[in-house]
Amino acid sequence: VGERAREAAVRERNAAVRERQAPPVKRADGRGPPRLVEWLFACTLPSRDRAAVLGDLAEAFEEMASLPAGRRGAVGWYVRQLIGSIPSNVKRRLDGPRALSPRWRGLEALMTSFLQDLRVSLRSVRTAPSFAAVVVLTLGLGIGAVTVVFSAVDGLVLNPFPFPEADRLVGVGTEYPKLGGELSYWENLSPAEYVDVRESSRTLRDIVAWDMGNRQVTIGDRTENLFSGFWWGDAFPTLGMRPHVGRGFLADEIARGDRVAILSHRVWLNRFGGEAGLIGGRVLINGEPYTLIGVMPPRALIYGTDLWIPMPVGPEVYPRQRRQFQLLARLAPEATLASANAELETIARRVEASYGAAMEEYDGWRLVATPWTTINVQQLRPAAIALMGAVGFVLLLVCANVASLMLGRAAGRRRELAVRAALGAGRGRLVRQLLTESVALALVGGAVGVAIGYVGVRALGATLTSLPIPLPGDLALNVRVLLVAAGASVLAGIAFGTVPALHASRLNVQRMLQTESLGATAHAARLRLQRMFVGVEVALALMLLVGGGLLVHSFVRMQAVDRGLDASNVLTMRLTLAWERYDNDAIQAFFQRLEEQVAAIPGVTDATVATQFPPGVFLRQRFFIEGSAPQSDDMLPTAYTTIVSPGYFTTLGVRTVAGRTFDDTDVSGGRLVAVVNEAAARRYFGDGSPIGRRLRLGGAGSDDPWFEVVGVVGDTRNRGLDAAPEPELFASTRQVPGGNQFFLLARTSVPPLSILAGVREQVRAIDPEQPVYAIRTLDRAFADIAAARRVSTFMLTLFALFALALAGLGIYGVVAYAVSQRTREIGLRIALGAEHAAVRRLVVRQALVPVAIGAVVGLAGAIAGARLLSSLLFDIGPTDPATLAAVVALLVGIAWLASWLPARRAARLSPMNALRYERG
Amino acid sequence: MTRPERLGEFEQLVLLAVARLGDEGYGTTIRRELERRASRAVTVGALYATLERLEMKGLVRTREGEPTARRGGRAKRHYALTSAGVAALQDARSALDRMWEGLELPARGRRT
Lengths: 920, 112
Fold this sequence. Notes:
The complex is a heterodimer of chains A (about 900) and B (about 110). Chain A is an alpha+beta fold and about 900 residues long. In chain A, the strands form 3 sheets. In chain A, strands 2-3-8-5-7-6 form a 6-stranded mixed barrel. Chain A has a 6-stranded mixed beta barrel with strand order 13-14-19-16-18-17. A 4-stranded antiparallel sheet of chain A has the order 12-20-11-21.
């Protein structure tokens, strides 16, 4: 009774302690024990003891740190404490005060026998360190690959955003069947449409709309260009986040368009020194004073915008067709995605009924709510699936390879196992022992893998962030990734341990103890299993090679695509002039002067400005061709519309197909002229020549001025290398305003980046406060647009080559073993007059049988599975014969080499030695 | 009262350390006392395992102290002997004393 009561008292105390555990007080000086070690220690402790033990340790740590050995010595001591305490902590954690119940006693017995198995495992690893090293390293590479890929998939596709309940955060897309019917989530809504949704939706709440652009922010004496968001509404409640410091926009501030600003965490930290005192202070934005009211939380929130300000005017100011806004909202508590979409559909129909007569594009238009995560990750999803599949295959292959190695190792341990069996260990116990061993090895391999993964994730993260593509999230070894790595390790340990364990535990104890050698049947059984593993390895490797090969082939083909321009030796950069200081005439004067001065820099052969350039052309407009009957069921003509200075086509090396391009005779106030590309000529002007025809921007009802088409130019890959050239219209900066943002493009006869300093000097000469940004070469722009493809191609190829190496090693190991088993037979053959070549052929032929079977299976699997890759392929099918042939040839070549090496050794045997050879 | 618990050697050392420290007995001081007097370097994990066992046997009782900044805001857990603990220590001592009575051992470190 006393025992029970005491137990109850202890339990009560523990509960009380748990309750009282306050969140840890922030350390004032940050000089306590290293966080990571402390955290690890906490993980091993039963929760009832955490506070007391960690407190003791922290206290002792302080004392140690004040000794001569200092902090370093104290850290060492702490780590030793951690390692030394693990066994008792873990044991206590597992049984705790519950140890008294029979169920837990059973578990404890199991635990004890597990610990025993583990000790035996450690001993057996110590006797064969090189075997263990090979296994651990192979597994480490496999788990490392899993870690890298999963952390990328987790950070970029599964959990890219820090927003709570991210699946209820939605963007609203639009689809205009009359304009091409593409569902778009980007610059897709007009202010009036935003108001339509905001005013009538009950299923969405915290609806905000925003536009993006560039602003010059002056901090001290330095002016920076910041990518900025301009908001109607406070985005923080929508995102479910809070400002890091300060506050979000108030409703009044939005309504009045107040001059208040919110900065990103990184800008605040790096350029403002992260001082909270700056909140409430002033910053200059495009030269105008603003009050800084808040800082965003540390992670990038919306497309890497670094500055948020309210829209200076209300939505009612804009025409209904100015679609340059995005919309973000949260599903209301009762709403589902389906109910929100049903409601949006009724809103769309109501808008169509009201405005459809005047605006044809509303005919059949749709509003679609889609989870924000889906919108932002869907283009990454195919690559993510492909890479996850690939890395799964790599891990399976690693398992097959290690299983084959384990079979070999188990053979050497049969006497040991026989002794155990003779001393009373049942088969189950032996299997458990062997499995414990393989899982332990796998976990060590997993630890190595996480270390490899850590390096890999950092490398991949650095690669990805250096790309200009906006990444939704970032890469880190978080708890989910570590769990996956640990889970993969345990599964791998079971996967590669089971077959060898079953095989090795099938013992004839008596005979094993009597004779030194294994029976021939055991050898045959082992060889059969190992050949099976070879077949599996070959099949897996082939599938990976096909995947990698298809991607590489696609990539090569893509690089060979005719871009329609000469991308080498062109430097590009962007300038945004502030409307506060420049009007349209001043902008035109600025860029005309800049173009002339840059062209005069030594090493520059041509210079031009344009609102956009290939491969990143994105500004699109409706237009109307004179004399074409507006048919209501036709798609309305749209084209990418680019305002360029006259030197654009010569600077980029775009062909003139017919007529002329712009020159200095095209002046403001004169006859307006336009140039179209071949794609536009083909699609919209039919068989006749477009030259001399007139077109007008905007819808059929627009009263904008007419442009006369004076020339046709060749197509460029204006939407990227993997998209067909899109129709594009050009107008001249000398005749029409192109807004306040232009790219400067300069062709050079020297390395393009070497003229950058000169260009900056010319910009400063015109306007000392004007920043330039988005600086890169045209070659780089083409490379960047294929960057995601390049990264996944590179990774898949890496996995395929690793798989090939593993398969080669596997084949080599099995053939070498087979040869060693047949040494006497081979010696006899040679003694009886067999040619060396015949012996080699014999060995190689036998070795290649499982390779051939594996290759056939793998090829079938690859053909079935390659369809998953189709969306990543370019210009080739998933069963591209050239790729398949090349890959099979490569694999067979490696397999032949891997079996030829041991075969050659066999053929060189001296018959005398061979016949004396004792089989082990 | 039930029969006093039998004590292992390490348990005895820990109980003695707790007894010596009086009000000042908690993880760090107990560990230090064992290290200084008995030359026993012991990990925190092992010490707490023993203390918990002693508590389960009813030989020590605990009391939560106040958190301090030096300990990263965590509370101390003070240990003190219960009367059963005192009895167990006395039993152990008298058993040892009886065994030692009149005994002379050969010199230490002899090799055969």
